[in-house]
Design brief:
Residues 201-213 have a biased composition (Basic and acidic residues). This protein has one helix and ten strands, in the order E-E-E-E-E-E-E-E-E-E-H. The radius of gyration is 19 Å and the shape is globular. It is mainly β and 223 residues long.
């Protein structure tokens, strides 16, 4: 995929059509999620929800399978922009949002994505991806844009896509990824995810310490 011409960004919005059909597979993308099961979020292409004739990528929580800090995301990775300032933009719409939903960009210096698909008790604000979205449903198409600096390291990459934290649905269409000049302001907002409390961090640290120091060999009775 040529990320420099990812997609053309239309100038005006279009009417959202209610989504009823199952989501189609999203070829060439990856996904990450947490929740009560691996099916906590439905993710894929929604042909029934379009922006100016263009299909949308969607992430949709499934009732009864998620917690307030669960999340689901569809992800693309861009390489070859070491030391550059880049912008990910598109048009977003959301529904039934209880925590946060929108577009994101995450940069990693060593080319390894360590955030999506994991639940970390030591999560800090600086670990969260940069985001453009809302804690409430956006019932009309809204333009979103995120600008970040990619680390100047040999394996640096930028991960981009759409994410839902907690309950909700999001659609992202007419996406574009491009290099921009240093005069374009950086995005400072992060996705809206609740962070672990100090008590939760301490409890997890104790659990990990206990696990490291005491471990009985499992299933010696061959049950």
């Amino acid at each position: 995929m040529d990320w420099k011409i990812f997609a053309a960004a239309p100038l005006a919005a279009a009417l959202l059509v209610a989504s009823a059909a199952p989501l189609s597979p999203l070829n060439g993308w990856s996904s990450g999620s947490t929740g009560k099961t691996s099916k906590a979020y439905a993710m894929g292409i929604d042909s029934s929800v379009q922006f100016q004739g263009q299909r949308s990528v969607s992430v949709q929580s499934q009732e009864g399978l998620i917690n307030a800090d669960s999340y689901g995301a569809v992800i693309q990775n861009a390489f070859g922009y070491q030391g550059r300032r880049v912008r990910f933009s598109g048009w977003m719409r959301s529904a039934d949002v209880k925590q946060w939903a929108g577009a994101f960009v995450r940069v990693d210096a060593d080319g390894t994505e360590r955030f999506f698909g994991s639940s970390r008790s030591d999560l800090k604000t600086e670990d969260l991806p940069f985001g453009a979205g809302s804690a409430t449903a956006q019932d009309r198409w809204t333009e979103v844009s995120i600008v970040v600096d990619v680390p100047n390291t040999p394996a640096a990459m930028a991960s981009v896509g759409a994410v839902v934290v907690g309950e909700g649905k999001v659609w992202l269409s007419a996406m574009r990824f491009e290099e921009v000049g240093p005069e374009v302001p950086l995005t400072t907002t992060r996705i809206g995810m609740p962070l672990p409390t100090a008590a939760q961090r301490e409890a997890e640290a104790r659990r990990l310490a206990e696990k490291a120091t005491r471990r009985v060999p499992p299933n010696l009775s061959l049950e």
